Amino acid sequence: MKVAEITRFGGPEVFRIAERPDPVPGPGQVVVRIMAASVNPTDLATREQPYTPGLELPLVLGWDLAGVVTAVGDEVGGYAPGDRVCGMIPFGRIAGRVGAYAEAAAVQPDWLAHLPGNVSFEEAATLPLNSLTAHQALAFFHLDPGARLLITGASGGVGGFATSLAVRAGLHVIGVAGRDDDAWVEGLGAAEVLPRDADLGAIATVDGVLDAVPVGPARATPALRDGGTAVFTREPQPATSEHVRLVAMRVQSDPALAEMARLLGEGVLKTRVARVLPLDDVAEAHRLAGTGGLHGKVVLKP
């Protein structure tokens, strides 16, 4: 099979296309023919430097995949050849032993979820990492319906899913939108939409902050009530505060992915794909994703 791998860390030019043996399912594994893989900020960061312990070169990047099951190993239930699936490879936890920038991968079934037939593989590839991050981040708040939640990066992958999920839970969402993305965030159900350069200390008091960009505690938390919680998708600096609770979350594999996939199929969750590129153009995909300003995700199509 074809893979996009790196043999050293650095810029997008470090990628090369290589051939590896087709994966065979071991006991408790599922082989997925990958039809789409999303490019995430964590992929760019890993390519640039080995911040995850235990990584060995050459390395195939990629957390998110969508595709079709082609084989199942012994002791696997719930999946069969021909099933449409999406999934999140817990890339950091497994020290990059499997990556999604490939034509196929042998994965654990609990990394996967069945994919509704009305969801394209390209759309599905944007779901797992970002929606699970949003879902798990919201679980830190324990807010009652009507509570005010500020979400930075509400037009991005994590922030957009978090906005939809928070609105579904009855929260009053104040979303910070990217350039020319006000209408998108409004369409996700946010009660208030702020521009990216808004003074977040000038808004009315909020009960929680999800910093999905992240912009950091100094900018994100001035309006947070005393005792409130701020959740960050990266380690906040400073890491503690006397008046509010600061939480750095790390996404984990989660059976809730099945619910996220169902909600995407029902239109409750919405996603955007900015560009779809063949696996051979992985370097260009990383350049595009790293430039910023895109309205949606960059997706690789093996």
Give the tags.
302 residues, alpha/beta, seven-stranded mixed sheet, six-stranded parallel sheet, 8 helices
Helix count, DSSP H or I runs of 4 or more residues? 8
Distance between the termini: 10 Å
Structural class, by secondary structure, is alpha/beta
Largest sheet: 7 strands, mixed
Q: Output the radius of gyration.
A: 19 Å
**Can you count the beta strands?**
16
Low-confidence stretches: none
- Overall pLDDT metric: 96
Helix coverage percent of residues?
10-25%
Question: Strand-residue fraction?
Answer: 25-35%
Q: How would you sum up the global shape?
A: globular
Element string (H = helix, E = strand): EEEHEEEEEHHEHEHEEHEEHEHE
Structure description:
The protein is α/β, with parallel strands linked by helices and 302 residues long. Helices cover 22% and strands 28% of the residues. The chain contains eight helices and 16 strands. The chain has helices at residues 41-48, 121-124, 128-138, 157-168, 182-187, 217-220, 257-266, 282-291; strands spanning 2-6, 15-19, 30-39, 59-60, 64-72, 84-88, 104-107, 112-114, 148-152, 172-176, 192-194, 206-211, 224-232, 245-248, 273-278, 297-301. Strands 3, 5, 6, 7, 8, 15 and 16 form a seven-stranded mixed sheet that branches. Strands 11-10-9-12-13-14 form a six-stranded parallel sheet. Strand 10 (172-176), helix 5 (182-187) and strand 11 form a beta-alpha-beta unit. The longest helix has 12 residues, at 157-168. The protein is globular. The relative contact order is 0.17.
